[in-house]
Design a protein that fits this description.
192 residues; alpha+beta; seven-stranded antiparallel beta sheet; 5 helices; 7 strands; 29% helix
């Protein structure tokens, strides 16, 4: 049984470990998160670096995608934990490197630069491990990955529970040549 009190960063890391290792089940963790949500709303005393968005993502543990798989996958829980523990992501394909949230310097403002039809069921098909979760107060789960290419960070995202979904690429600045080359390397095509 989980005590209904706001978690610390370390407690959230332990909870994620226990969830992945089967020492806690999804329904119990979901109930715990809902009890805290009822008490605190969006004011849970955690910073983003302490797992604020990961805590809110646990509210989707029991949800499934339109094709029947879990909306929040085990790989997402592992990514939350790795990010909270400060584990650097070393995934790289050519000049494109994947980053975790804690690896990005600051929180640059990103603008929508590109959109296309979704290729396959999830972003993992692009060759990089993606992460799903709630990352804004609209409570919609998004699937995203942050990559760095030619000195620029880009956020690639989609809505996994939308069968008509699109892939969006957001970036720090409008550098069309770099953007088009990244899109080509990821195997995305301009909708047209």
């Amino acid at each position: 049984m989980l005590v209904v009190e706001p978690p610390s960063k370390q407690a959230l890391i332990r909870l994620l470990r226990d969830l992945v290792e089967g020492q806690q089940d999804r329904r119990t963790v979901f109930s715990w998160q809902q009890a805290l949500l009822a008490q605190y709303g969006w004011q849970i005393p955690l910073s983003v670096s302490e797992g604020y968005w990961y805590f809110y993502s646990l509210g989707s543990l029991l949800d499934t995608t339109y094709h029947g798989g879990p909306l929040i996958r085990e790989q997402d829980l592992l990514e939350y934990r790795s990010d909270l523990e400060g584990v650097e992501c070393r995934q790289r394909i050519g000049e494109v490197s994947r980053y975790r949230a804690h690896q990005r310097p600051g929180q640059e403002l990103m603008w929508p630069l590109f959109e296309c039809a979704r290729v396959g069921k999830d972003l993992n098909r692009l060759g990089f491990k993606s992460v799903r979760g709630v990352f804004e107060k609209r409570e919609a789960v998004v699937e995203q990955l942050t990559v760095r290419f030619r000195g620029q960070h880009f956020l690639v995202l989609t809505h996994p529970d939308d069968p008509e979904g699109k892939i969006y690429v957001l970036g720090e600045m409008r550098k069309q040549a770099e953007l088009l080359e990244l899109v080509e390397r990821l195997g995305l095509r301009q909708q047209g």
